[in-house]
């Protein structure tokens, strides 16, 4: 039919930002006038067209047409009512694309021997060349040019030998502007035109479509994954049918119709480009690490975005030389286990975090990070949540009562589990039991020297031994500042060793005897040399009050610089803080006076109007104490004030040295003792390691105050203490706990297999610790027999054959014990009490449940106040008083004790003490105020806080214990709710906010009162707005809270999504299917 005759000439159309098509070859028959189809910039809306901000009438104007009378519309288009293009079959060139397509089809019909593949290739070639030409036109006429800039550190490394095709680059960027429907059309053409060959245009189109989507998970970082998921090509029959039913011209029209109707995705072009760069870098990094290449890409095998995050969130511009050397170690490239040791403040954690990110992003494996204390776990969760949000992995907290066993198996995002030693052990057990231990690609252990510290060391040794024995592909990284017998640890962990003496700030060590200060010098005979005399005038009264000259030492640095004073006991901390502020000049009160008043006000809010009188006296001078006698909220407020410089002096116990990072210009050791024990070299190194703040101080100082009588005990040339296995010293939490879980997890089920496993423990390496009377095999035999006698294992150990192959099995009680992490000393007692509780559980209140979940290990060193005991008993309801009778503490016993009468009937003191502690917890849950409860029971608030934390953790353990025993089904729902109440111990409306890492009760109250009542409110909050609305909240803290809330929300959403996918998953074993 006639196309466009008699039409007036029109000006050449401007390039459309939405429809990009190829310029067309001249048609043999005749040249056609230029036509333009409507793009999104001039789409019809309400009878008028919008073009570059102008409105023009529609109908017969420029760029529109009228249908010729009698013209039949082609059927089969997307819109059956109107052919949106009609005669206008050219995108933007001088000739008709659709005419070319028609010619090609005509030739195809004439030549039956020409296959469909050739026809498709011709069209595809025209399209490809056209797009290149069009893009060149756009580059020459566009007003806004976008240049993707990359600095020298972030740039891609291109092989010089690789040819680079400029046309290919133009085509690729041209396709960026195509609507999704047109890209899909190209993909369809590609499938038609190639059988085994993949067309470059289609491949690039596919990548363009993918890059326009937001990168949601590390699994989508590699473009290659998209090709693996592409559908199979059409068969030759389907190709023929497709050409037969609808012509290519119809297909192209259909695609253009879709383009006109499609909505433009509101996605930032800059954001798309950044995400494309990030995905490419992660893909390169993953391939590089898999090939163990020396050239590890932009940032140690990670995308440059990671480097930007360290700069933005941590202020880290570049790594220290030792950190670079450590990350470049051949052993790390080969995924060997590694132990590395440096002084405190040397930057060990940063290296571990980079290795963790490599595992999560590049190798796509889960990671477990084991830290010694709950406070450090919470701090690390807050610090890494921002990285998880930006890089697409989850950060899960396993501390106290928090943690899910087994963890949710994620299909897309990988998880970083941050756990205490005990929770880390339970997590590893659950992964082994569910045969998912191979999902754990990396385990990082901070403070590796804790292997030698009591029952916690035994638990850590058991955890690492199980990982080494059950998963050969899991890498273990251990770090510490104080290691000596590294050879044993290397043999145990099958690890390489790296060490360095680097400190970012020089540390100068001193010792003070009387009024003389000596510099520590290991080259001299006695280990120190004279440095100076103290220059401070002491009155006779001051000399009596401060014989150790602490005031002279601290006033040399405060208030301009910060100072820590380590004291042997908690009481000594409070005494030192009080004594120092009594003799300081009034000028000290003026330093940051407003912030100090705000701190006192904040502490009053925490204590509901109550503040410790010592803190009330010392804080105006910038001084406070720090020990376990503080509540969680108080401790956090004091730490924040010290970090901000509001407080310049902390008198603290040794626990601060291994806890959160609070550095100082000068560290003073009040005495070479921790409690009544003489100071160990390891402890000394931990404490003085806090001296010197990187980026703030040019040097750090430590001063050890020594009395003349202890002078001979201080030997600086002594080596660090060795790290020895505690499996034998801690029998219940060590050896027997290990044997029980080995059989329960089916790691070793015969005496012989258990023997083989023990060789992979630290005890197996250090068999010199064993007594000559018994061999390791005999100790194992005794332990197994003991477990059989307790009813935790079933089987028989031969008296004659120690290597008996008799298979051992675990009993339900044994399984409940190891899965609940219950101390073997109490497992039978717990079972009996829970069983007795079923006979008459008092549910009028939660007092009976609280008794059953009060920790056993807190009753031994405790003595109740009998008058308070009687008073609290009398305040109970009649039903609640029955609880005392049920557990075995009659009212008459309490009354006689309170009145001082003689007791003839013996009552178990452990039960009496446990009931008293359950009264404390019961009152605490009702009043939710640690201060008032501590006063009511005449206890320190720190003890009440510790009781609450221990009870929450133990209740979680009892819950897991009951889940394994069907007879205790009734406890499951009850203990789940009780665990939550004990964990947070606040009013119900504050619990959602306190689930966010780093938000404690005082902060939760502030947030709730400001209108932030849910996790979603916090996740979508603006950090700047939070700072304005919440008192005493820094921008850094606000950002951490928002990131933690986002992470928590992401975890919950992921968990629900996993549950949905699991429900919708089609079973593979449906009866009657092949």
TrEMBL record:
Basic residues composition-biased segments: 1-13
EC number of this enzyme: 5.6.2.4
Keyword Kinase: no
Compositionally biased region (Polar residues): 195-222
UniProt keyword terms in alphabetical order: ATP-binding, Chromosome, DNA damage, DNA repair, DNA-binding, Helicase, Hydrolase, Isomerase, Nucleotide-binding, Nucleus
Bias (Basic and acidic residues) ranges: 39-48, 224-238
Subcellular location, principal: nucleus
Catalytic activities: Couples ATP hydrolysis with the unwinding of duplex DNA by translocating in the 3'-5' direction; ATP + H2O = ADP + phosphate + H(+)
Any one Gene Ontology BP term: DNA repair
Keyword Isomerase: yes
GO molecular function terms listed in the Swiss-Prot or TrEMBL record: 3'-5' DNA helicase activity; ATP binding; DNA binding; hydrolase activity
Region (Disordered): 1-77, 195-238
Superkingdom of origin organism: Eukaryota
One GO CC term on file: nucleus
InterPro entries for the chain: DEAD/DEAH_box_helicase_dom, Hel308_SKI2-like, Helicase_ATP-bd, Helicase_C-like, HTH_61, P-loop_NTPase, POLQ-like_helical
Cell compartments where the protein resides: Chromosome; Nucleus
Annotated ranges, domain Helicase ATP-binding: 329-501
UniProt-listed Pfam families: DEAD, Helicase_C, HTH_61, POLQ_helical
Residue ranges of domain Helicase C-terminal in the record: 553-739
Family membership: Belongs to the helicase family. SKI2 subfamily.
Function of the molecule: Single-stranded 3'-5' DNA helicase that plays a key role in homology-driven double-strand break (DSB) repair. Involved in different DSB repair mechanisms that are guided by annealing of extensive stretches of complementary bases at break ends, such as microhomology-mediated end-joining (MMEJ), single-strand annealing (SSA) or synthesis-dependent strand annealing (SDSA). Possesses both DNA unwinding and annealing activities. Forms a complex with RAD51, stimulating HELQ DNA helicase activity and ability to unwing DNA. Efficiently unwinds substrates containing 3' overhangs or a D-loop.
Record's protein name: Helicase POLQ-like
Organism field: Calidris pygmaea (Spoon-billed sandpiper)
Upper lineage: Eukaryota, Metazoa, Chordata, Craniata, Vertebrata
